[in-house]
Amino acid sequence: MSGVHGPIKKLLPHASVLLHLLLSVLLGWPSGMRYPLPWGGENMAQSAHFNVLDLNMSIRVEHDRRRRQFTVSLNGSHDRAVLLYEYVGKRTVDLQHTEVPDAYRGRGIAKHLAKAAMDFVVEEGLKAHLTCWYIQKYVKENPQPQYLECILH
């Protein structure tokens, strides 16, 4: 970094981390590996550890009927996103709550959970109360006729 001075010199280590993350996601490079960078940011990139969902893998939603929840395991760790529901009648469910850990928000995970839950309601011929604000938003943005027919107001 001999020819770089002032504020730009201070930003280069951060640029290394961001470039490493970008290359990891776009090219499928494993996180935590060493990649030489043009300004010698290799060590910073190597030391940066990002617990991110691999954007190249598909998001798999699991349905646990006994616990009445849909889940997505995040990066094979104990972290998970969850959508909870309860039966409030013989053929009626209340889609109550969706939660995605802060570090994973904004990546479409809740959208996959909401879709799985609404598809479950449709496939099982159930009616649904939408207590969860996110599921209300999802249905508003995805007004599938089969979803709208199942919603109780």
TrEMBL record:
<dbReference type="InterPro" id="IPR016181">
    <property type="entry name" value="Acyl_CoA_acyltransferase"/>
</dbReference>
<keyword id="KW-0732">Signal</keyword>
<dbReference type="Pfam" id="PF14542">
    <property type="entry name" value="Acetyltransf_CG"/>
</dbReference>
<feature type="domain" description="N-acetyltransferase">
    <location>
        <begin position="62"/>
        <end position="152"/>
    </location>
</feature>
<dbReference type="InterPro" id="IPR045057">
    <property type="entry name" value="Gcn5-rel_NAT"/>
</dbReference>
<comment type="similarity">
    <text>Belongs to the NATD1 family.</text>
</comment>
<protein>
    <recommendedName>
        <fullName>Protein NATD1</fullName>
    </recommendedName>
</protein>
<feature type="signal peptide">
    <location>
        <begin position="1"/>
        <end position="28"/>
    </location>
</feature>
<dbReference type="InterPro" id="IPR031165">
    <property type="entry name" value="GNAT_YJDJ"/>
</dbReference>
